[in-house]
Design brief:
Length: about 140
């Protein structure tokens, strides 16, 4: 099984329709059905039932969906991280601020919130009285 099969399963769950999933992925309905059959064979469980023309998740489908969603999200994040590392994206935020306004009052809360939302970032932070020496110290980390 490959990641595309899990992506397809998630999309069918989210749209509630093989037809809608096929349109979104620019595939035929039989191609989507084949992928659903693949994942059902892999897990040895029926994942969908049809009732009155609607596609409904079975108990097994309900169990699998959060795992499949998590795997797809982890895959996407890992791909982004590797691409970023190969491209040499910087994950260190470098900044300087004056002691009174930026360093003591404004930035600690903002940086704490940013760090919580972006745990991969690190900081080089210089705080001091603004002067020519201060701006030189900040530029040294460029």
């Amino acid at each position: 099984m490959n990641i595309q099969v899990l992506k397809t399963f998630c999309l069918v769950v989210e749209t509630g329709s093989i037809n809608q999933a096929a349109k979104s992925l620019y595939l035929s309905q039989p191609a989507i059905t084949k992928q659903i059959h693949q994942i059902e064979a892999e897990y040895g469980a029926l994942l969908f039932n049809r009732k009155d023309g609607r596609l409904l998740l079975t108990e097994s489908g309900h169990v699998l969906y959060p795992f499949a969603k998590s795997i797809v999200q982890d895959y996407n994040q890992s791909k982004e991280a590797v691409i970023a590392s190969v491209a040499g994206y910087e994950s260190t935020l470098k900044m300087g601020a004056s002691l009174t306004i930026g360093g003591e009052y404004l930035l600690p809360g903002l940086l704490g919130k940013f760090k919580k939302e972006n745990p991969r970032f690190s900081f080089i932070f210089i705080c001091g009285k603004y002067s020519k020496g201060f701006s030189t110290a900040v530029r040294r980390y460029d």
